[in-house]
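Lab meeting, action items carried over

1. Structure of the two-component assembly. Owner: GW. Status: complete.
Input record:
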Amino acid sequence: MGYLRFKTGSSEGEARTGTLKLRHGTIRTPEFMPVATRAIVKALSSDDMAELGAQLMICNTYHLMLKPGAEVIERAGGLNIFMNWKKPLATDSGGFQAFSLGFGLEHATGKISLYFPGEHKGSRKPQKSIAKIDNNGVHFRSVYDNSKHFLTPEGSIKIQEQLGADMILVLDECTSPLSDKEYTSKSLDRTHLWAEKCLRAHDTDQALAGIIQGGHWQDLREKSAQFISSLPFDSIAIGGSLGRSKKEMHDILEWIHPYLPEDKPRHLLGIGVVEDIFEAVERGIDLFDCVTPTRMARTGYFYVRPPLGNKANKFKIKMVFERFKFDSKPLDPECNCKVCGNYSRAYISHLYNMNEIVGHYLLSYHNTHFFLNLMREIREAIDDSKFSRLKKRWGI
RNA sequence: GCGGCAAUAGUAUAGCGGUAGUAUGGGGGACUGUGGAUCCCCAGGUCUGGGUUCAACUCCCAGUUGCCGCC
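Predicted assembly:
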């Protein structure tokens, strides 16, 4: 078993705080993991992440096995040394890439369509799938050089052991909401089979997380929650097609909740945005990972707290030069991050408009601070039994 | 100074005697286990002045500006 101990702390309803002990340190939950796909949170150095008070980050097996290669990282001494990051790390298994590079390309769906296909139309042009899945594993081509690769559950574990993160994930199949129940059910059996294979292959003191799938069918989700919870995983992740509406995502969390062990952290994969974080914490989730802060930064949005931020604007504002060129205020007057302390909207909008690297940096820094700070507030609120009040104050 | 060529959206370029396209830039929107990507929507233009014609961005004349060549 992995080197992980989870102790729950305060709770308010199903919302709870916890202490998660990993090889590189102990963290407090609920927490948001910035996504460091290629061993970096885009635009931010490990020093920045430390300064921001990030407790852990999640890297990606698919990308790192291709570039620079697992061996490079292994011989460097593992991800922590490679990245000069002293606190805990997680790695994703590469299972999601089988989706995003397979179904996602073929059916022209972005991630949003995966989660909320009823609310959004596919926004990409259909492309030829570069991944194929069978009972043994995932066949795929590298997005970097088109070379052929085959990833098995055992292979994914082995690579994640070479990468050496504190917490690793089993290889799973992330099904599409457009898949029918028959396929989703078959796929679920395969994901469960792989979960057992991963457990057998696992041979280090890294914490290993199992993944619950099952699409938007109650019986499949319950079956999966029951099965994954029955295995000796250190942590439980919830993945896949989380319903066709926000309500359905809430339903899924409520369906599986009774089956989840109290003493294991629960990680909602790939989520989320502000509203989803509140709703998921309320339903007992401890860990999140999402690209939102840095992706939004790169497409020119900055996050804002209430009163500027609200449910309608999704707590973000578009960085537009024409709108801000004479604006000497910080991005968010309510924010206490370094960027808001030192720079004006006028300056940052100019940098963004000119596509200057530091423009991306400043927005990424601020947005990452926004999410980490939100999680800090949520933890404090749960400790003080004020979570529902905080949620209401954010208008959610 | 003379000759040739050109002048169309912020920029770069098509086109036609009868509703002026495209790209890029601009504005708005989308983005949830990464995508500096992509997708959707909007705004924006025929150098100036004459002439021919039912009708001129298109043809003609002059002017202006630019580029090239010559003296």
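2. GW to write a short summary for the group page. Key points so far: The first helix of chain A runs from residue 46 to 51. Confidence is low (pLDDT under 50) at residues 109-125 of chain A.
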